[in-house]
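Hi V.,

You were right to ask for the full record rather than a summary. Here it is.
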Amino acid sequence: MAKSEAIFPARRQALYEMHRYSAAIRSGDLLFISGQVGAREDGSPEPEFGKQVELAFKNLQAVLQGAGGTLDDIIDVTTFHTDPEQQFEAVFAVKDKMFPQAPYPNWTAVGVNWLAGFDFEIKVIARLPSA
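Predicted structure:
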């Protein structure tokens, strides 16, 4: 059985230390990435929603890169939204830039009423290339 390995991106330790969790866990060729939010380096939320979504994706890419992966390795996406109906247009604009062509990862969007001061969160599962 493969041993699990914690993955942390550069310059984002404040958020993980504050909340005591790993950015991602690699188990074999699978990478389970914790929910990424539009947090600045100090862990505080980006106040403008569209920029918060862009920063969440940028933070997601940093975790993937830390494990040797890219957005192309993502197979499953779950997003959390505090106001889905009002937010989907901004989210889709960023999503379309990040995943411009098929095959797209499967995607589940969930409306929630609290995200610790954030308005958008994205968690994924990726299959990493062989080392």
